[in-house]
Amino acid sequence: MSVVVIALGATLCMQVGYLLWKISARGQPRIGVAPPLQVARALLGDWRWLSGLAATIAGWLLFIRATTLGDISLVQPLMTVGDVFLIFLAVAFLHERMSRQEWLGIAVTIAGAATLAFDPSASPGTHIDSTSLLGLLAASLAAAGALLLAVRRGARGELALALTVGLAFGCGATLTKAMTSAAATTAAATAPPMPWEFALDPMLLAVMAANVAGLVLLQAAFQRGRAAVIVPLQLAVTNGVAVAGGMLVFAEHVSPTRWCGIGAIVIGTALLHRGNRDVPRS
Question: Tens digits of per-residue pLDDT, 79-109?
């Protein structure tokens, strides 16, 4: 159960970071419109955004630890529990409105996460299928390109951006698991490697690239829509990429219980997405 506890700690840290980013998005130069240097200066000069970055990094370190100890197909869906925390904060402090259908989606998502907590077992071995990993990354990149093209055409930009963020973070999560699995196969000690031991790992550059892209796109999405809907939607896509990576890349066994939990999370996030159509923005 330590995997479950660490994953929950990771998502709580990340959701605090997301909330601070959403707050800092107000008054910031619009990403994609303002010059990149102006955007970078504004973000780095905003203590709220920097505090959010620190919280997110702490969550990422805990996430690395969780993927070292358990399956990515378990750890990443559990990260969805943080949605509930973020949504309540968004409603309480940002005064974002939620429809009945969205509240139903939250309840279904919580039920799915609770179901996953009953199946914390990890798959044996540290197998990595490099061909499947490259295929998953290529497919995600192609889908992200199509979604960004839709954003340029003005088709519900915040939703397309949220989906793109999910693809970026999903690839980052899968690459993180590949990095920890590779380290585990070469570790001489019986104890799993700690997060700071990956500082010199060449794969860390790919992990950082995927996550930085996700962070930039997430800030752009926050400038266009509600955090209470953007974050659950991006996490749904992140979960899908991570579960696919777990099965195809790492040969993880997804039990019926885990499938039920993942399915509930997908349904819950779909309800959140559909409910977004009838609620005015704050």
Answer: 777 766 777 777 777 676 777 887 888 788 7
Measured torsion, CA atoms of residues 77, 83, 85, 89, in degrees rounded to the nearest 10: 170
pTM equals 0.71
Return the residue matching tokens 């996550």.
211
Q: Which residues of 232-245 are buried (b: 16+ CB within 10 A; e: fewer)?
A: bbbbbbbbbbbbbb
Instruction: Please count the other Cβ atoms lying within 10 Å of the Cβ belonging to residue 185.
Output: 10
Helix (H) or strand (E) holding 86: helix 81-93
First to last CA, the chain: 39
Q: What distance in Å separates the CA atoms of residue 225 and residue 73, rounded to the nearest whole number?
A: 29
How far from the centroid of its chain's Cα atoms is residue 128's Cα?
22
Element (H, E) at 148: helix 130-152
Q: 7, exposed or middle or buried, with CB in 10 Å at 0-12, 13-18, 19+?
A: buried
- Summarize pLDDT for 225-268 with one digit per residue, the tens: 776 677 777 877 887 888 888 888 888 877 787 788 878 877 87
